[in-house]
Structures are given as structure tokens and as C-alpha cells.
Amino acid sequence: MKLSQLLKTLRVYQTTKDINHVTVTGIEMDSRQVTHGHLFICINGFTVDGHDYAKQAEEKGAAAIVADRPLDVSVPVILVRDTSRTMAKLANAYYHNPTQKFQLIGITGTNGKTSTSYLVEAIFKQHKDKTGLVGTIQMKIGDKEYQVKNTTPDSLFLQKHFAEMVNEGVDTAVMEVSSHALDLGRVHGADFDIAVFTNLSQDHLDYHKDMDDYLRAKSLLFAQLGNGYDATKPKYGIVNRDDPYYEAFCNSTSQEVLTYSMDHKGDITAKDVKLSASGTTFTLCTPSGDKEITSPLIGKFSVYNMLAAASAAWVAGVDLETIQEALSTTKGVSGRFEPVLAGQEYGVIVDYAHTPDSLENVLETIQSFAKKKIYVVVGCGGDRDRTKRPLMAKVAVNYATEAIFTSDNPRSEDPESILRDMESGVEEGTFKTIVNRKEAIQYAIEQAKDGDVVLIAGKGHEPYQEINGVTHHFDDREVAAECINDRTQRSYRD
Ligand SMILES: CC(=O)N[C@H]1[C@@H](OP(=O)(O)OP(=O)(O)OC[C@H]2O[C@@H](n3ccc(=O)[nH]c3=O)[C@H](O)[C@@H]2O)O[C@H](CO)[C@@H](O)[C@@H]1O[C@H](C)C(=O)N[C@@H](C)C(=O)N[C@H](CCC(=O)O)C(=O)O
Ligand SMILES: Nc1ncnc2c1ncn2[C@@H]1O[C@H](COP(=O)(O)OP(=O)(O)OP(=O)(O)O)[C@@H](O)[C@H]1O
Ligand SMILES: N[C@H](CCC[C@H](N)C(=O)O)C(=O)O
Ligand SMILES: [Mg+2]
């Protein structure tokens, strides 16, 4: 593509050299990936400054470089104010505005994004759409799966894969939109048709200054709904009416908003909700009629996720029978309230709860059906929100018969000091600390008796544990199954 053509998408920029004859063969933000003819964009990151790699990009064949300051290179430099946002604009233009060519549903909120996204995917699959999905666990185009590093990847990765979705004939894509992504402009230029808000509670206060700042970032998804695109195309915001922050989301968009609710009046609601250890039934009430839903998903929070997904589908025009069929047959997502079944007589559940609110939701659910004792194995991630640590510890102690504090992903932090932060939220003598996660899981499983439940929280689907910058293979489900089998074998021998 001619660079001058690509730059038409920017209003304010300067070039250090004539660019009329420059053609670019791709856009790259990582100098190590640059090949001949690429346009290299310098991003000032959290770890290093991409401007320091401009020379390397030139040596590797970059045809031009986008920067926010003059550089000592001989290829043309395009000077802009904000290279991150410019990258989103350029990527969008380079891949020919892919998100205008299919329906895009964005989901934001503290908890439930991944769970809701798979429900949305299931409904649109049932509707015979070809689907795309971007989120914490993976990216999918149809049934093809791709690994992702971030819940919401950078704009370059996103636009490139949105273009692939167009080529693969995707009709509807659903994606999780993290607060980091919104704040850093990773979804800048993505043309969302429907924006869904699940809920807001404390998380990520390492990155965001305070809850107001976190809310501001989250609400950007609603703020960008329909901005700068074809005004005749309907856009909708979908908001959880029962969340204390619902008004802020309603007020963040100029588009029409629909609410879903269990406890208030809403456009889409759930009535006669029956929760049990084996699943959930409720009546889905919509402006176009009611449907009985019988779902294998467990817990009140799952009803919220189903309401959010049903609302997005309903507003997109999916018929109620299709929504009913999909919700009734869709099983849980990997690592979300996932039972470990190894023939034991006590329950073992692996769950991705890593915030105070999600931990409380999951424990409330377990408490409602647990016949006897509840053991909770939980830790908190290193290099992340420290202030949620004592709160998570408190929730665990409040609900558990025995709470076992352990390591999650300590990352670069000292595991012991993360545990001290957790312990500061609870009284001495109300918990046990076992730093090694495997030993903590083993301990809980050894205690459990017939009818008890062991919750292993925080890591869900993650197949690794990051300790001191090194990533080791570690899967809570595998470790739990090993511990159960080990105990069973010993009991045969005794
Ligand atoms: C804090 C944060 O968001 N960091 C993201 C950021 O990394 P960074 O700023 O450290 O990047 P950097 O290493 O400083 O590099 C800066 C620039 O120099 C370039 N570079 C670097 C080295 C080199 O040799 N040559 C070169 O050109 C890099 O390609 C980059 O363009 O940019 C990277 C590329 O897009 C991201 O993968 C990375 O996410 C890291 C892995 C991360 O953990 N992010 C978390 C906090 C996050 O974003 N989480 C949310 C989910 C939260 C939720 O649960 O809701 C998410 O959406 O994933
Ligand atoms: N609607 C909900 N409200 C509260 N907690 C929920 C809800 N849905 C799921 N959870 C709990 O939160 C955990 C994480 O769920 P999920 O992965 O769907 O959230 P997420 O928003 O994608 O999280 P992340 O920000 O880490 O990507 C689940 O394992 C469950 O414990
Ligand atoms: N998306 C979340 C994942 C947390 C998972 C938990 N296991 C941890 O490592 O803290 C985050 O980046 O905060
Ligand atoms: Mg997620």
C-alpha cells in the first residue's frame, strides 16, 4: 500500500522526508519482527521504549517509521502526537476497516466477560452464523483456535485478525474488552455494534488510580459505540441494571441502551430462578415473549451471564427459540466452576475467581448446596492490585470451614510477602498458609470427607505458574486429580 494513501487516515502529522514514492508491505510494532518494506511504529511501553529500536527496525528494512519525536535514521519518519492511537488508526486503514464488515459485540466489566463471551458465541453458532471470538483463553475464527497473550490484544494484532475474520466469512464476532485495552487504545477504531457491561467491582488498582479511574476506562467501550461510523447502522448498549454502576454506563453512550436484571425492572429479566448443584432453571422474559431455560451452568452469577448474552442476541434479532436452545445446551467454560471428577466422594471445583467479588459469588453458590465442610485454596497474583489481597482473604475466611492461603502467580514478587498482604485482612488463627500451591491443594484434598467441597480458586484454565519470572507448567485440575488419585490409591493399600 502507498504510505501516502495510508496516512490519509491521520489529520495531524509531519514527515521528515518526501514519502510520495514510499510503499509499505505491512505494519509492525516490534523491531524484531520487521522485514523489508514494513512501516515500524515506535510505542513507548511499560518496559522499554520502542523509539530505542528504530535504528534496528531500519536495519531490518523498515521503509518508514512512525514516532512521537525526531529520530536519527535515514528512512522517512512520520511524527505524530500519540503513536499508540495512531497505530490503531493505521492498522484499521491498512486492513480496510474490517470491523465494519461483520457484527462486533464487545463485553466489558470486572467479572464474567469470558463466561458471557462463550454464551454469545454459542447463541450465534446456533443461529448458524460463522463466529469469531477474542478473549482471555484464546482467539477463535470459526473453530480454528489461536493463542493470545492478552485478553484484549493490541490494535495491530486485532485489526489483522479482524481482517482474517472477514476473509473467513465471519458474520458475528464477540470479544472481551479489558480496561487496560480501553485505556491504552487497543480497540480504538473498532466498530462495535453492541457493547455489553457485566458488572464492576474492585480489581486492577495497580494500573488504575482508583475505582473512578477504573470506571472511566471501562465506560470508554460505551463512549466509542457508534463514534465516527455509519449513523444509520443501529448500535446498542446492554447494561446490568442490578449493578451499582449501571447508570454510569447508560450515561456513557449516546446510543440506545437496554437493561437486563434479576432484581429490578429491566428490558430482559429472569423470573422463577431455581439454582441447584446440578444446574439452573429460569424464565427468560423479553419484550417479545418468555422462554423457559434449563441450563447446566451453576450459580446466580451464571444467570447474569446468560441474561447478558441473551440480551445481546435478542437486540441483534436472534429468535427466542435459538437463544433458548443455545443456553440450554451450553456447558461451562474451561476453568470456570469446573469440577474435577476422579471418582472421589467429595466435590473439587477449580475456578478462575481472582477478585473479591467473584470469589464471594462462587463461595455463596457453593455454600448454598454444600452439605458439609468447605475448603478454599486461594492465592493472589504478584505485580497486580495489592489492595485486593486482604479483601480476597477475608471473603475466603468468611465462607470457608478452612481457608488455605497459597501462591497464585507470584511473578516478580516474593510469594511470602504476597501472603503477608493476604493475612493482614483476617484474624490470626482463622486460616492456614502453605506457600507451595501443590502442597496446599494436596492438604485440602487430604482433609475432605464425603459431602465436603474443595474450591481451588484463582487460576482456572491457566496451565502455568509464574514464579520469579519463570513460567512452570502447572494446572490446578491436573494437580487436584493427581492428589485425589494418590489418596485413593493409598486408601486401597491401607
Ligand atoms: C502493562 C501492559 O499492558 N503491557 C502490555 C504492553 O507491554 P509493554 O508496554 O511492557 O511493552 P514493552 O516491552 O515495553 O515494549 C514497548 C514497545 O517496544 C517494542 N520493542 C520491544 C523490544 C524490542 O526488542 N523491540 C521492540 O520494538 C515492543 O514491540 C513494543 O511495541 O504491550 C504488550 C503488547 O501489546 C502487551 O502484551 C503487554 O501486556 C502484558 C503482557 C500484560 O500483562 N498486560 C496486562 C496488565 C493486561 O493488559 N491485562 C488485560 C486483562 C486485564 C483483565 O483481566 O481484565 C489484557 O487485556 O490482557
Ligand atoms: N457475572 C459474574 N459476576 C461475578 N462473578 C462472576 C460472574 N461470572 C463469572 N464470575 C466469577 O468470576 C470468575 C472469572 O469469570 P470470567 O473468566 O468469565 O471473567 P472475566 O471478566 O473474563 O475475567 P478476566 O478479567 O480475568 O478476563 C469465574 O471463575 C467466576 O468465579
Ligand atoms: N486478567 C487477570 C488475570 C489474573 C489471574 C490470576 N491468576 C493472577 O495471576 O493474578 C489479571 O491480569 O489481573
Ligand atoms: Mg476474561
Automatic annotation (TrEMBL):
Binding, UDP-N-acetyl-alpha-D-muramoyl-L-alanyl-D-glutamate: S31, N150, T151, T152, S178, R186
UniProt-listed InterPro entries: Mur-like_cat_sf (IPR036565), Mur_ligase_C (IPR004101), Mur_ligase_C_dom_sf (IPR036615), Mur_ligase_cen (IPR013221), Mur_ligase_N (IPR000713), MurE/MurF_N (IPR035911), UDP-N-AcMur-Glu-dNH2Pim_ligase (IPR005761)
Q: State the compartments where it is located.
A: Cytoplasm
Domain Mur ligase N-terminal catalytic intervals: 24-95
- Mur ligase C-terminal domain residues: 335-460
Question: Which pathway is this protein engaged in?
Answer: Cell wall biogenesis; peptidoglycan biosynthesis
Output this protein's name: UDP-N-acetylmuramoyl-L-alanyl-D-glutamate--2,6-diaminopimelate ligase
Tell me which species this is from: Pontibacillus chungwhensis
Q: Which gene encodes it?
A: murE
